[in-house]
Amino acid sequence: MFVLAELKDNVRIAPELFGLKLPEAIKDEINRKLANKVLLNVGLCIALKDIVKLGDSIILPGDGASHTEVNFRYIVFRPMIGDVITGKIRSCSREGVHITLGFFDDILIPPSALQHPSRYEEAEQAWVWEYPLEDGNTHDLYMDIGENIKFRVSGEVFEESSPIGPPDQEVPSSSTGASTSGGAGSSGQESNKTPYRIVAAINESGLGLLSWWVQQAQEDDEEGGEEEEQEEEEQEQDSGGENE
């Protein structure tokens, strides 16, 4: 789930930080620059692990800061395909079940990857697994917000989010009102891009809400206990008949 990424960067240290030791100043600057940021095709940066190599520090003409080439290792959140992780349900929509890990929220279980058959309850804003019973009926198991859920990572999506330029100048609504509203909408869509998201699945035995399988295990234990009691009673009856 967490990996070490070997990275290289040219770190700028401002003159007011020259009083600190160079490694300490560089560590603070790297964490300030990368912590909680997504690097394309790398993952979500968590914290600096260590500095591998420090190059020579130089001062460029017209800039009083020092520039140092640094090789370092950074702790990154990027689960592998097939990893099984436990999170919490953040919300449900027709797009699927949205999951959070507390520090990462962009996890989606699409409807096709839910337990089959499942349906979406608009009034409850929740997905429901129609669990089949032995008598042919079904029992509704709701996926409520805040429930702990175990899922398998099935895919990942990186998107490059380019900086958005300044908004277009306002144009009188009488001339091109429709075109200005369309432009604003497209800019809003670009700004809402998610740089890194995970696609998950729970359509396997043992995956899904933890409460489902705990309840099933308790029922299996109860059934097993009843069978053992019946066997003990039969053995006692058999032994009693032999004694007679």
Automatic annotation (TrEMBL):
Signal sequence bounds: none
GO aspect biological process, one term: innate immune response
Region (Disordered): 157-197, 212-244
GO cellular component, one term: RNA polymerase III complex
Family matches, as InterPro entries: NA-bd_OB-fold, RNA_pol_III_Rbc25, RNA_pol_Rpb7-like_N_sf, Rpb7-like, Rpb7-like_N
Major place of residence: nucleus
A Pfam family this chain is assigned to: SHS2_Rpb7-N
Residue span(s) of domain RNA polymerase Rpb7-like N-terminal: 8-64
Superkingdom of source: Eukaryota
Acidic residues bias locations: 218-244
UniProtKB keywords: Antiviral defense, DNA-directed RNA polymerase, Immunity, Innate immunity, Nucleus, Transcription
Keyword Heme: no
Chain ranges of the RNA polymerase III subunit Rpc25 domain: 83-213
Compartmental location: Nucleus
Subunit structure: Component of the RNA polymerase III complex consisting of 17 subunits: a ten-subunit horseshoe-shaped catalytic core composed of POLR3A/RPC1, POLR3B/RPC2, POLR1C/RPAC1, POLR1D/RPAC2, POLR3K/RPC10, POLR2E/RPABC1, POLR2F/RPABC2, POLR2H/RPABC3, POLR2K/RPABC4 and POLR2L/RPABC5; a mobile stalk composed of two subunits POLR3H/RPC8 and CRCP/RPC9, protruding from the core and functioning primarily in transcription initiation; and additional subunits homologous to general transcription factors of the RNA polymerase II machinery, POLR3C/RPC3-POLR3F/RPC6-POLR3G/RPC7 heterotrimer required for transcription initiation and POLR3D/RPC4-POLR3E/RPC5 heterodimer involved in both transcription initiation and termination.
Similarity comment: Belongs to the eukaryotic RPB7/RPC8 RNA polymerase subunit family.
Function: DNA-dependent RNA polymerase catalyzes the transcription of DNA into RNA using the four ribonucleoside triphosphates as substrates. Specific peripheric component of RNA polymerase III (Pol III) which synthesizes small non-coding RNAs including 5S rRNA, snRNAs, tRNAs and miRNAs from at least 500 distinct genomic loci. With CRCP/RPC9 forms a mobile stalk that protrudes from Pol III core and functions primarily in transcription initiation. Pol III plays a key role in sensing and limiting infection by intracellular bacteria and DNA viruses.
Protein name, entry field: DNA-directed RNA polymerase III subunit RPC8
Organism: Anopheles merus (Mosquito)
